[in-house]
Every structure is written in structure tokens, then in C-alpha cells.
């Protein structure tokens, strides 16, 4: 039964939840006004922190509220469940604020009914989960940034207020994206997060690399967004004939209602159905925003932005927007096997490729960036294997531990005076104990150490991959092994071995202040325990006799556009295999890097292959040669056409009178008699012509 | 008739071109030839017509004199002689006016034009003379194009005049006596007379004003009208 | 007869025009202007004496016109000669070819 009918949101009304996006925006505007009013930077963060905190509180409340049919139902798990088992494929509650733009009255229907793009919000299980971690992780990052964006002496950096204003704007945009109830509003949030990403990557705008990275991110995203926009147009075109009066063609509820009809109608293009075409086009946006192969190249460069930005935008929230979109459109994508296959292939290629790239990097944040791309590709594989619940589960857990990892890397960077190259320091275990412990938790979660959050979600994906095809599962296992290996390579190089400090670290590098470490403990708790939302603990479990996958989380997601989760049956052996793989990777990394050797053993061993990975397969250079330079050349051609062709034409038009004037100026010599002669001759000629014509 | 006109004009042009002061000195002595030729032909034509009517003889003579004087005005090297030939021209035109029953106008022409304007011209020529023949008097400026343009114009006008059937009504021989002209002037054209007076006043004032401009002026540069 | 008078008037006008265009002495140029006036006067009076069938002018209008023309010619001569004298004083020359400043620099 639809959520709207079952029970309305009871703790707070939908109207109150609809204000969720508003609070960070208000905070950002207030900070903007403070900047204009030249307020002191020390206090500049309060409006944004308060705004995001209110949104986080509302997010948690919404999560609880939306889950009430789930909390109250008895018995969860595969195939089980009592009377309160949530209905499959329940559509969410669409709450409309106001009608925004009209498509115009439809001529074919009798009284003229307008079809609208409305500002409406869509509340269902997916929304609840996304908002929970988006707002909570944002809050932690914002609090962390209070302390991070300061120099050694604790004074706020230049642009402190601007940073918080942009962060507030970003949280607003991300919440809008998640809450959007129709594709146009989704696109609005999409573009706005892209804008905020640009603004925040290029935060240190004086630095050329940062400015270039910001441009790169925006442009590569734009390429994906073009496909996305075309997908929305396609959806509108396809649905025009189907929608009933009163239904807005681009609302989620309407699109998914007719998804089946789209799947059975051919699009007249290479044998694809309409659902195929729409899905593939929408996929372009996801590929760009979620940094999938081949549009992932912007994410490593985006590490030029400050670390909180990398944590929030490029690990936990913005890059998950693509996964979110595909998961949201499960009815549509599920009806398009072609799109699912494309997703699967892109995800596999991306995961494996970027995992190898991460094995050979030295920049702490870059390793984490490639790791992010790899994990996002994991989620894509899950989506491609018709297991969107697993994908969303991994999004959820990944947000916590990836944000934790980035922020601890930021703590390291802060202590090391801005140095981020792991070759330049080691043995920080004794220097930064708190950071050491936090990063250990994060690394264990990422590597898939058993019992931590990452293990559960990653295992589900591997499970789904094996069901799809053993080769897919095998490749994912290999990638998981690589993940564990490079994560701990990074960890050991950084924290173990002899203590070496770079000169920029100053005399006494120390742990971060509480304002930075306390949010990290919250994230660490999330990294450990959020996995248990999806795992049932009790006797008779599949793993170690205690744990059974599929729990509240999956039922929660069951009352969303994702539909009910597939029952997970059998395959307990896979859990043990993936646990072994993770442990093996960690052990191997300990063996080779445990003492943080000065010279990289892998580089020596693998030689050319390692160099290939270190140079990231020269993909950036390839793109430069194949796309950027020809386009720039084309730009030069157009510029030349404009300057010489168009401007030349204008010049010509102006040159003709000037030339004529110059030529005729010889007649004006100031000689009176010459003028008189000219006049007489002219009169004579005129009379001649006149008489001859008569 | 038209052919005769054209032939006359060609001869006249050639003669004038040669007669204009310039560097074609060795040719200048041939100038009188075509001019005389033109004049002779003209004279022959006119005299033949004049034999039928005595009045036409007077017209012929006076016209010839006028044209000859005009040619000399244009072609003479010394400005003083140009002015004097102009006086002759005025007298010839006066005669023609008398033939046209414009007696008052003829008298006015002699008195005003020859008596005042031309005297002024002569004075000024005397004032602005250089000892030797000035260079600008000796050479003409583009005589060829000038003659061509002028005679082309004359040819066109002449052709039109000879071919066009200008139906003339033999009007009453309006006698241009003083009384007639005066009456007409002061009744029909009273306003124009006033305006004319204003014009003359303005000219006088202007002349005085301009003449005074030179710092060491002694005020005799400006001449007032008659 | 009219045609003959008109032809003579035209000839006088043309000669004056040629002289105006050809001679370089300023005073002679003015003189040729006066000659053009003579031709015009002759034409006017002739047309007044032998009016065209379609003419609407009254009797003696040609002579009156010519009278005004004489007045105007007188005024013009006065002023013109004043200017010529001034020019001669400034430039020591009556050459019209030297007066070329009214042109595009």
C-alpha cells in the first residue's frame, strides 16, 4: 500500500520535513550577509553549523518517522516476516509545495488541464536513508571544518566565512537533490551540487592547479549532465502520450507508474525500447557525477580542494548522487536490461582499474580518491546486478568510513604542515595517537575487515555479483583484495616504521584539537556499527553462527521505489571467502610495508606494470590528446573565423565607405575653380543625358 | 542650322583655347585664325539675315561686338585691358537692350555697371598691380577642360534652342520707359525694392567692416556701392 | 528673334564661365562673373520682350528682374573686391591657385 495511504508522517507533518533544505540555505545566506557586513571570521561558522544541525535533527526524525511501519513489523529477514511486513514496491508520498512551471494546457484533453513541473518532495524509504547519512555526515564535516580551516596558530584562514557559506549552500543543494520529487528538481539539485563542487574545489582560487581542477570537474560533469538532460527530455517525450490529466509527466510517481509501458514500446533506434533509451541517457549523468569510468578523471584532481570538501563532497555525498539516482529509478532501470548491462560493465572496469591505480600512488588523498572511485564502481556493479539494496547499503556505510578516512587524512595533513606525500613522513603512530586509532578504524572498514560496516555491505555486493555471474563475482573479489592491500599500504607507510617528519611539520606536531577529533569519533562509531542496520544478530545465523544478512535496512528500503529486496539464500561460504580475502590483503600489506620502507617494494617488483599504474594508465594524457587538443584547435578555428571572418566582414563593410571617401577626397583640393569646372561639367553632362533621354 | 552651330562652336572653342594666355605661345599667333573664321561665318550668316531687316543689322553688329569683346576679356594678358574690354562689352549689351525696348534699363546699365562697378574694378586692379606681368596672368588654368566643358554646355543649350519649338507670342511691345518701369517697380514690386535696399545697406556695412580689419588700415579699402 | 538673343546671352554666359574656370587672377575671375551676369540680363530682357506663349509673367517683368540683378551685382562686386584687396594685402598675390586651405587636411 502506498505510504501516503498507510499512515501519514506522524511525528512531524510533511510540511515541517519540507523545510529540511531550508535551514542550511538560511545559514549560508546569513554567513553571506556577515561577509558583506565584514563580521569577524571567528563567529562566521555558527549560522551554517546551526542550520545543518537542524537539518540533521530533522533528518534523523524523518528516518524514524518513515520507518514506523518497519519498526513495528515483526520478524525480518529473508522470506520471513509477520503481518506487518512492508508491502512490496510501495510508492512514496509526494508532497507538493507549489506548481512551478507549466507545460501548457494539453490540447487533446477537454477541459484544458495544465501539466506542471512542481516543486514537490518525495518521501520514501530511500529518501529517509539518504537524508540520514547526508545530513549527519555533513554535520560532522562542518564541525570538523571549524577547526580544520585554521592555520598553525589557530587563526581562521583567509576565506573562512566563504567556506562555510559554500558548505551551507552545498548541503542545501544535496538535500534538494535527495528530496526532489520530479526529475527537473533533481536536475536542479544536480547542477547546484556541481556548482558548489566547483566553488569548493577552486576554493584556493589563487592556486592554478586548484582552479584547473575545479574547471575540469565542472566540465567533465557537464558532459554527463548533457546526457542526463537528454534523458529527461526523452522521458517527457515518451510519456506524453501516456499520462492522464492531472498527472505531471516528470514526477517520480508518474514516471514509475508508466515504466512498464516504456519498457514495451520500441524507441525506433537500434532495437532499443523507450525505457532503454531513457535509462541509458540518464546513466550518462550518473557516470559523470559518480565518477564512473570513463568520466572519473575529475575526482582525483578534485583533491586540490580543502580536505573537508574532499570528505563531504567527493566521498560521502555528492558522488553518491549518481548511485542514488539509478537506485531511485529502479523501476525504470529494472525494465531495461541493456542499461543494467552497461552499468555492470562500467562498474567492473572502473573498480578494477582504479584499484590498481590506487596501489601505486603516494599522495594520501589521491589514494583515497581512487579508492572512492573504486568503491563507487562497486555500488554500480551492485546496481547492474539487480541488487540496488546492496548498492544503497554500501553507499550508506561507505559514507561513514570514507568521510572518516578523509578527515583523518586531513588531521595528518594539518599536523604535518600541509605535506601529504607519504614518502615524506612515517611512523606517526606515536606522534598522532588519536588520529592513528581513528584512521585504523576507517581503514579496517574500507578493507572489509569482518564485523565492521564495510564488510557487510561489500559482502552483499559480492554476493549479488556471484549470482549474476561467477566471473563478475571473482573480479570483485580480486578488487576487494586489492582494496585491502592498498588501504593498508597507505596506512603502514603513514603510521608505522621509523619516525620521520618533514620540515614543514614544525617542532611539535600533535593531534588535532577536540573540535576536529570528536566528530571523527562519531564517524568512527558509524563506520563500526552502521552495518548492523542490515544484519540481524541472533542465534542461528549464517555467518559465524550469529549474523544473518537482511534486516531492518532492507525492509526499510523495501518501502521505496526500489521494491522488496531479494531474499538472500545460501552462499555463506562467500562471506568466509571475502573475510579471508580482506585479512589476506591486510597481511600481505603488513608483510611488504609494515616497516614503511623508504624504497617501494612493489615498484621494484612490478617495474613497468607499476609505472603504468603510477601514471594512471596515462588516461588523462590520452583524453588530452584525443579530446582536449582537437577541441581547443576547433576553438581556435572558431576564434579565427570570428576575428577574421565575421570581424573582417564588418571591417569590409566599414572599409568600403572609407575607401570611397579616400578616393573622392582627391576632388577636394580647395581649388575654387576646380569646383566651378566640376559643376559646369556636371551640368553639361546632366543636360546631355536629359536631352538624349527625351 | 544645327550643323552650322556645331561648326561655329568647334571653331570658336579651338580659337579660344589657343587664345587663352598660356605656354602655347608659339601657337597663340594662330589664334586669330579660327576666331576670325568663326566670326566671319557668323557675320556672313547674320548679315544675310540682316539684309532683310534693318533692325537685324543692328542686332548683328552689336552681337558681334559683344562676343568679340567678351573673348578679349577672357583672353587678354593684362587685367586692365580686360576691364576695358568689359566696358566695351557693356556698351554693346546696352545697345542690344535698346533694341529690346528697354531704354531705362540700358541707361541704368551704363551708369551703374560701366560707370560704377567697372570703375571700381579698374581702381582695384590698379591697387593690386605688380610691376611686372604676374605669373598668374600669364598662364591659364586647364584651358582645355574649361573650353570643353563650356562649349559642351553651349552646344547642348544651343541645340535645344534651335530645335525646340518655342512658340513665341508676339506680345505688345512693352515700352521700357522710365515711367513704365518705375510704375511697375514701385507698385508690383514695392516689397522687393525695400529688400533690395536692405541688401545694399548690408553690403555697404559689410564692406566697411571687412575693410577695417587690417590693424594698420586706413579705411579706404572698402568701396560703397553706387 | 528670341532665339538669337537667347543664343547671344548663352554665348556670353559660356564665355564668362570659361573665363572663370580658366583664369587665375582673382579680379579677372570676378570680372567673368560679371560677364555671366550680362548674359543673364540679356536673356531676361529678351524673354520679357518676346514672351513665350505659356509665360505667365507680366509686361516689363524681365526688365524689373534685370534691374534687381544689377543691384545685386553691384553689392556683390563691392564686397568681393573688398575681400580681394584684403587678400592681396595679406598674401601679396592675386593668384587664385594659392587659396587652397578649404580642403581636407
Describe this structure in words.
The complex is a heterotrimer of chains A (694), B (226) and C (105). Chain A has two domains: 3-614, no CATH class; 618-693. Chain A is 65% helix and 5% strand. Chain A is built from 29 helices and six strands. The longest helix of chain A has 46 residues, at 619-664. Chain B is an all-alpha fold and 226 residues long. Chain B has helices spanning 2-19, 25-28, 32-50, 54-75, 79-99, 103-127, 135-138, 143-163, 178-188, 190-211. Chain C is mainly alpha-helical and 105 residues long. Chain C is built from three helices and no strands. Chain C has helices at residues 2-22, 26-49, 61-91. The N and C termini of chain C lie far apart (52 Å). The mean pLDDT of chain C is 87. The chains are: A mainly alpha (694), B mainly alpha (226), C mainly alpha (105). The interface between B and C is large, with 93 and 74 residues.
CATH fold-level assignment of chain C = Helix Hairpins
Based on CA inertia axes, which overall geometry of chain A fits? globular
Q: How far is the N terminus from the C terminus of chain C?
A: 52 Å
Largest sheet of chain C: none
On the 0 to 100 scale, the average pLDDT of chain C is 87
Please name the defining characteristics of this protein.
heterotrimer; A: 694 residues; mainly alpha; two-stranded antiparallel sheet; 6 strands; disordered N terminus; B: 226 residues; Four Helix Bundle (Hemerythrin (Met), subunit A); disordered C terminus
Task: Give the SSE map.
The complex is a heterotrimer of chains A (694), B (226) and C (105).
Chain A: H1 3-6, H2 14-17, H3 22-36, H4 46-66, H5 68-72, E1 93-105, E2 114-123, H6 125-148, H7 160-179, H8 183-201, H9 208-239, H10 252-257, H11 259-264, E3 266-269, E4 272-273, H12 274-289, H13 298-301, H14 307-316, H15 320-328, H16 330-334, H17 337-358, H18 364-384, H19 388-415, H20 433-447, H21 453-468, H22 470-495, H23 514-529, E5 535-537, E6 547-549, H24 552-558, H25 572-593, H26 601-606, H27 608-614, H28 619-664, H29 672-693
Antiparallel strand pairs in A: 1-2, 3-4, 5-6
Helix pairs in contact in A: 3-4, 3-7, 4-6, 4-7, 6-7, 6-14, 6-19, 6-23, 7-8, 8-9, 9-12, 12-15, 12-17, 14-19, 15-18, 15-19, 17-18, 17-22, 18-19, 18-21, 18-22, 19-20, 19-21, 19-23, 20-22, 20-23, 21-22, 21-25, 22-25
Chain B: H1 2-19, H2 25-28, H3 32-50, H4 54-75, H5 79-99, H6 103-127, H7 135-138, H8 143-163, H9 178-188, H10 190-211
Helix pairs in contact in B: 1-3, 1-8, 3-4, 4-5, 5-6
Chain C: H1 2-22, H2 26-49, H3 61-91
Helix pairs in contact in C: 1-2, 2-3
Amino acid at each position: 500500500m502506498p505510504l501516503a495511504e498507510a499512515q501519514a508522517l506522524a511525528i512531524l507533518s510533511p510540511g515541517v520535513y519540507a523545510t529540511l533544505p531550508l535551514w542550511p540555505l538560511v545559514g549560508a545566506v546569513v554567513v553571506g550577509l556577515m561577509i558583506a557586513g565584514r563580521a569577524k571570521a571567528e563567529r562566521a561558522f555558527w549560522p551554517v553549523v546551526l542550520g545543518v544541525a537542524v537539518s540533521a535533527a530533522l533528518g534523523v526524525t524523518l528516518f524514524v518517522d518513515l520507518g514506523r511501519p518497519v519498526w513495528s513489523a515483526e520478524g525480518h529477514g529473508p522470506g520471513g516476516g509477520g503481518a506487518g511486513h512492508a508491502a512490496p514496491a510501495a510508492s512514496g508520498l509526494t508532497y507538493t509545495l507549489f506548481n512551478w512551471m507549466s507545460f501548457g494546457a494539453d490540447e487533446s484533453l477537454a477541459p484544458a488541464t495544465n501539466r506542471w513541473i512542481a516543486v514537490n518532495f518525495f518521501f520514501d524509504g530511500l529518501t529517509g536513508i539518504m537524508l540520514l547519512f547526508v545530513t549527519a555526515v555533513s554535520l560532522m564535516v562542518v564541525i570538523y571544518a571549524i577547526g580544520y580551516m585554521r592555520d598553525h596558530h589557530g587563526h581562521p584562514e583567509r576565506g573562512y566565512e566563504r567556506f562555510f557559506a559554500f558548505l551551507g549552500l552545498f548541503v542545501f543543494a544535496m538535500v534538494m537533490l535527495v528530496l526532489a520529487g520530479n526529475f527537473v528538481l533533481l536536475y536542479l539539485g544536480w547542477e547546484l551540487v556541481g556548482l558548489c563542487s566547483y566553488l569548493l574545489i577552486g576554493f584556493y582560487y589563487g592556486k592554478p592547479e586548484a582552479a584547473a581542477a575545479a574547471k575540469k570537474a565542472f566540465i567533465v560533469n557537464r558532459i554527463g549532465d548533457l546526457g542526463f538532460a537528454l534523458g529527461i527530455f526523452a522521458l517527457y517525450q515518451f510519456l506524453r502520450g501516456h499520462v492522464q490529466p492531472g498527472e505531471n509527466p516528470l514526477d517520480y510517481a508518474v514516471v514509475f507508474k508508466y515504466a512498464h509501458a516504456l519498457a514495451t514500446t520500441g524507441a525506433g533506434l537500434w532495437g532499443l525500447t523507450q525505457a532503454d533509451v531513457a535509462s541509458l541517457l540518464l546513466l550518462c549523468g550518473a557516470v559523470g557525477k559518480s565518477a564512473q569510468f570513463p568520466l572519473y578523471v575529475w575526482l582525483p584532481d578534485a583533491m586540490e580542494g580543502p580536505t573537508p570538501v574532499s570528505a563531504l563532497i567527493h566521498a560521502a555525498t555528492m558522488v553518491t548522487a549518481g548511485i542514488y539516482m539509478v537506485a531511485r529509478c529502479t523501476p525504470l532501470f529494472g525494465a531495461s536490461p541493456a542499461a543494467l548491462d552497461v552499468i555492470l560493465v562500467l562498474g567492473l572496469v572502473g573498480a578494477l582499474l582504479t584499484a590498481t591505480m590506487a596501489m601505486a600512488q603516494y599522495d594520501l588523498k589521491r589514494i583515497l580518491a581512487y579508492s572512492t572511485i573504486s568503491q563507487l564502481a562497486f555500488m554500480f556493479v551492485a546496481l547492474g546486478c539487480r541488487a540496488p539494496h546492496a548498492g544503497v547499503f554500501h553507499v550508506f556505510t561507505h559514507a561513514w568510513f570514507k568521510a572518516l578516512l578523509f578527515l583523518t587524512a586531513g588531521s595528518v595533513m594539518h599536523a604535518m604542515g600541509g605535506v601529504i606525500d607519504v614518502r615524506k613522513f612515517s611512523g606517526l603512530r606515536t606522534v598522532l595517537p588519536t588520529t592513528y586509532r581513528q584512521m585504523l578504524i576507517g581503514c579496517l572498514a574500507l578493507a572489509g575487515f569482518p564485523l565492521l560496516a564495510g564488510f557487510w555491505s561489500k559482502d552483499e555486493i559480492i554476493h549479488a555479483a556471484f549470482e549474476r555471474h561467477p566471473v563478475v563475482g571473482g573480479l570483485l573479489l580480486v578488487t576487494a583484495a586489492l582494496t585491502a592491500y592498498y588501504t593498508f599500504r597507505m596506512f603502514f607507510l603513514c603510521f608505522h616504521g621509523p619516525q620521520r617528519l618533514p620540515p614543514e611539520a614544525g617542532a611539535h606536531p600533535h593531534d588535532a584539537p577536540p573540535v576536529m577529533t570528536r566528530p571523527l569519533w562519531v564517524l568512527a562509531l558509524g563506520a563500526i556499527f552502521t552495518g548492523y542496520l542490515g544484519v540481524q544478530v541472533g542465534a542461528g545465523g549464517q555467518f559465524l553462527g550469529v549474523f544473518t544478512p537482511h534486516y531492518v535496512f532492507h525492509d526499510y528500503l523495501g518501502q521505496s521505489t526500489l521494491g522488496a529486496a531479494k531474499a538472500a539464500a545460501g552462499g555463506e561460504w562467500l562471506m568466509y571467502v571475502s573475510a579471508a580475502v580482506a585479512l589476506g590483503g591486510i597481511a600481505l600489506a603488513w608483510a611488504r610495508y609494515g616497516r614503511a620502507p623508504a624504497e617501494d617494494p612493489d615498484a621494484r617488483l612490478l617495474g613497468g606494470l607499476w609505472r603504468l599504474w603510477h601514471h594512471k594508465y596515462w588516461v588523462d594524457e590520452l583524453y588530452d590528446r584525443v579530446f582536449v587538443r582537437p577541441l581547443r584547435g576547433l576553438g581556435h578555428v572558431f576564434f579565427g573565423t570570428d576575428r577574421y571572418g565575421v570581424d573582417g566582414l564588418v571591417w569590409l563593410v566599414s572599409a568600403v565607405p572609407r575607401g570611397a571617401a579616400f578616393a573622392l577626397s582627391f576632388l577636394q583640393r580647395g581649388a575654387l575653380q576646380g569646383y566651378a569646372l566640376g559643376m559646369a561639367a556636371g551640368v553639361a553632362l546632366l543636360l546631355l543625358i536629359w536631352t538624349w533621354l527625351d | 542650322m544645327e550643323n552650322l552651330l556645331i561648326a561655329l562652336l568647334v571653331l570658336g572653342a579651338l580659337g579660344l583655347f589657343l587664345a587663352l594666355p598660356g605656354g602655347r605661345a608659339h601657337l597663340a599667333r594662330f589664334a586669330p585664325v579660327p576666331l576670325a573664321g568663326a566670326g566671319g561665318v557668323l557675320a556672313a550668316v547674320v548679315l544675310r539675315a540682316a539684309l532683310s531687316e534693318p533692325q537685324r543689322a543692328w542686332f548683328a553688329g552689336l552681337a558681334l561686338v559683344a562676343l568679340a569683346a567678351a573673348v578679349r576679356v577672357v583672353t587678354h594678358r593684362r587685367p586692365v585691358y580686360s576691364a576695358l574690354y568689359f566696358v566695351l562689352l557693356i556698351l554693346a549689351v546696352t545697345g542690344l537692350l535698346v533694341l529690346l525696348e528697354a531704354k531705362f534699363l540700358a541707361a541704368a546699365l551704363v551708369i551703374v555697371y560701366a560707370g560704377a562697378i567697372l570703375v571700381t574694378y579698374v581702381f582695384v586692379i590698379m591697387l593690386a598691380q605688380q610691376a611686372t606681368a604676374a605669373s598668374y596672368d600669364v598662364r591659364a588654368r586647364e584651358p582645355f577642360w574649361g573650353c570643353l566643358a563650356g562649349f559642351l554646355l553651349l552646344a547642348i543649350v544651343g541645340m535645344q534652342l534651335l530645335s525646340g519649338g518655342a512658340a513665341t507670342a508676339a506680345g505688345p511691345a512693352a515700352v521700357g520707359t522710365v515711367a513704365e518701369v518705375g510704375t511697375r517697380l514701385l507698385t508690383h514690386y514695392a516689397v522687393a525694392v525695400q529688400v533690395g535696399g536692405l541688401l545694399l545697406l548690408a553690403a555697404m556695412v559689410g564692406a566697411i567692416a571687412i575693410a577695417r580689419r587690417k590693424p594698420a588700415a586706413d579705411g579706404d579699402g572698402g568701396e560703397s556701392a553706387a | 528673334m528670341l532665339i538669337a538673343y537667347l543664343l547671344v546671352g548663352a554665348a556670353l554666359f559660356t564665355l564668362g564661365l570659361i573665363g572663370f574656370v580658366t583664369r587665375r587672377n582673382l579680379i579677372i575671375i570676378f570680372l567673368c562673373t560679371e560677364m555671366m551676369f550680362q548674359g543673364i540680363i540679356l536673356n531676361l530682357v529678351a524673354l520679357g520682350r518676346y514672351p513665350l506663349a505659356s509665360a505667365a509673367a507680366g509686361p516689363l517683368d524681365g526688365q524689373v528682374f534685370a534691374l534687381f540683378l544689377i543691384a545685386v551685382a553691384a553689392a556683390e562686386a563691392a564686397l568681393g573686391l573688398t575681400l580681394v584687396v584684403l587678400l592681396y594685402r595679406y598674401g601679396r598675390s592675386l593668384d587664385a591657385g594659392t587659396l587652397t586651405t578649404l580642403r581636407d587636411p
